[in-house]
Amino acid sequence: MSAFLAVATLAVVVGWTASVISVLWRAHRSPREARVAVVSGIVLAGWAILEIALARAGAFLGSPGQRVPPVGINLFVSVLLMALSLGAAPSLRSLVSRQSGIIRLQGWRVAGLLLLTHTALGHVPPLFGLPAGLGDILIGIAAFGVARAADYPQGRRRALLWNALGVLDLVVAVTLGITTSPGPTQIFHTVPTSAMLAVYPLTLVPVFAVPLALALHGVSVWQLLRGRWAAKTEAPPDRAGFGIAASKMVA
Question: In terms of DSSP H, where are the helices of 57-106?
């Protein structure tokens, strides 16, 4: 089972990275945008390879009494690097009328099923694994419905609400991961603890998957707040997004 989880986690990281690079490339409209998309894709792919190598080498294990664990430092650096890499691509920044492609990238969050598997096997505490895993699965599934309406003016509020919930899910997961892990920040003394979050392959979640998801949410919200949605003006299908009820929640 451990070998299966390692392969499955690695497949998610590789597949998600490839999907982002594909969106970057397909969105370009000029030779310059193509070059920037290629560079951004190389940076993202290179970072993924580096993170996998460091995780396998045990670089995120830290040492007893260390106030700021390597996982926390890496999380901050990864978010910054990914945001800069994605935000620097004109081909991605110009997708103001095609939010659907960016939102669908969060569909990879259904891999939260792996966190539930780790929880069931006793690798991480339910206090962390259940809300983190279930939250990711729900956000990942909802991404496809939200994406269907996101390119329409009526879908803007729905997409903003979904992004807010997606970021909240990540914040809750990170907070619970920190407060259930051994160290100065531990508040909940669970059995087991979340020490496995620093061990390969599970450490790829906080050091790569979480930063990538946060960066994608950031790009999506930035576009939603500045986009005009001139391409499509008709109403979206009734089944899109969270439906009429969710739209009224933020009206």
Answer: 70-87, 90-93, 99-104
- The helix/strand/coil state of 189 is coil
Using CA atoms, how far apart are residues 205 and 10, in angstroms rounded to an integer? 10
Residue 179 in 3-state DSSP? helix
Whole-angstrom distance, CA of residue 196 vs CA of residue 181: 9
State how far the Cα of 153 lies from the Cα of 127, in Å rounded to an integer. Answer: 39
Give SS3 for 221.
helix
Mean pLDDT, 10 residues at a time, the chain of 251 residues: 88 94 79 79 90 92 68 79 66 56 93 96 97 98 92 84 96 94 91 94 92 89 69 50 39 35
Give the distance, in angstroms, between the CA of residue 11 and the centroid of all CA atoms in the same chain. Answer: 15
Kindly give, in sequence order, each residue whose CB lies less than 8 Å from that of residue 40, ignoring residues fewer than 6 positions away.
24, 85, 86, 88, 89, 92
Q: How many angstroms separate the CA atoms of 37 and 24, rounded?
A: 5
**Rounded CA gap, 179 and 174, in Å?**
9
In angstroms, the Cα distances linking 126 to 118, 120, 123, 192 are 9, 8, 9, 9
Domain ranges across the chain: 2-249
CA distance between the termini of the chain: 47
Task: Please give the Cα distance from 207 to 205 (Å, whole number).
Answer: 6
With beta carbons less than 8 A apart as the criterion, state whether 95 and 227 touch.
Answer: no
**Rounded (5°) CA angle 234-239-243:** 90
